[in-house]
Design goal:
6-stranded parallel β-sheet; binds NADP nicotinamide-adenine-dinucleotide phosphate; globular; alpha/beta; 11 strands; 3-stranded parallel β-sheet
């Protein structure tokens, strides 16, 4: 970690005052456990857990996300069945595919890569996935359980952020946390996890209509930024020793890069130089844990369907 830290700071010309919350080492420790669980499932049921991956069209970011999921799946030893369908696939065709996967006992989890083309209702598709196989945790059933503070398949990004906070032993009980962004996939489920009994943070959920945002962020021990605007949040908006979690992933055109773009987070990382803050990097932060949490959800779904504790 120290070596990696020095490298990052050298590349970014930063001093070492702030701490970087790398996700890679969090992922490595989770992957060890995931591999054990895959082996346990294999011993008990004579097959690996199986994830059905559905992707419509060829949007660059979606293709990358799906390929990262397949890669980690291969590493931990799960099986994946891929359905790469044309963008023109109709809503009824997609719903029929989901119905058949719901009824297929060899399938443990179903993931439909979002966003979907405009002619398809995401709500309809998400609701159609059996809640037992809803490894993204977006279904009304799993979101309902989460809202009630009960055991659920939890949306992967929110779950991954909780794992990072836990790994780095960030105190949460009685602490004030501000989340910027109230989407159903990040901010809202995260607000439920953080305010849950046992975690006990005091959570403020901000959005585009929030007035005087800094009034909340400057007073917070932890700030989570999930807005989708590069470098939106900087050190002038935070306490000197805040923990800052950057969820944002935006592709910014960059002709100096071979692929023609670079990835930027919502946090102006370098502005935290010479502060006592702890910040997650982009890339190498929350995104890494989103895909790891998906695999955790798959294992959990696979065991639960068999009536065995995950
Ligand atoms: P989203 O659905 O577009 O939601 C954005 C949220 O930001 C909304 O709640 C919006 O408020 C709020 N917002 C927009 N402008 C704001 C402003 N000026 N001040 C305060 N709040 C503002 O986005 P999302 O799906 O949650 O994703 C957010 C970012 O995270 C994107 O960059 C996305 O690519 C990234 N992401 C990363 C991962 C990962 O694995 N790292 C996973 C998912 C998403 P309103 O509700 O009022 O519109």
């Amino acid at each position: 970690m120290k070596k990696e830290l020095r490298k990052t700071f050298k590349n970014a010309n930063l001093s070492v005052d702030m701490r970087v919350l790398y996700a890679k080492e969090v992922q490595e420790s989770t992957v060890v456990e995931l591999k054990k669980e895959v082996r346990r499932f294999g011993h008990l049921f004579s097959r690996p857990p199986l994830l059905a991956l559905i992707l419509l069209g060829s949007d660059g970011a979606s293709v990358t996300y799906v390929s990262n999921k397949r890669k980690l799946g291969d590493e931990i030893g799960i099986e994946h069945r891929d359905f790469f369908l044309p963008e023109e696939t109709s809503e009824s065709e997609l719903l029929s595919l989901i119905d058949s996967l719901n009824g297929d006992d060899s399938v443990d989890g179903i993931l439909v890569q979002l966003p979907l083309p405009k002619h398809i209702s995401e709500e309809k598709v998400i609701s159609r996935i059996s809640h037992e196989k809803d490894v993204d945790g977006f279904s009304p059933y799993n979101m309902g359980l989460l809202a009630l503070g009960e055991e659920a398949l939890v949306p992967c990004t929110a779950k991954g952020i909780m794992t990072i906070l836990e790994y780095y032993k960030v105190p949460l009980s009685g602490k004030s946390v501000t989340i910027i962004g109230r989407s159903n996939i990040v901010g809202r489920p995260l607000s439920l996890l953080l305010s849950k009994k046992g975690v006990d943070a005091t959570v403020t959920l901000c959005h585009s209509k929030t007035k005087d945002l800094e009034r909340y962020t400057k007073d917070s021990d932890v700030v989570i930024v999930a807005v989708g605007r590069p470098k939106y949040f900087d050190s002038s908006m935070a306490k000197n020793d805040a923990v800052v979690i950057d969820v944002g992933i935006t592709r910014v055109s960059d002709s100096s890069r071979k692929r023609g773009y670079r990835i930027e987070g919502d946090v102006d990382f370098s502005s935290f130089e010479n502060t006592d803050a702890m910040v997650t990097p982009v890339p190498g932060g929350v995104g890494v844990m989103t895909v790891t949490s998906l695999m955790e959800n798959l294992l959990k779904a696979a065991f639960l369907r068999k009536g065995v504790e995950a």
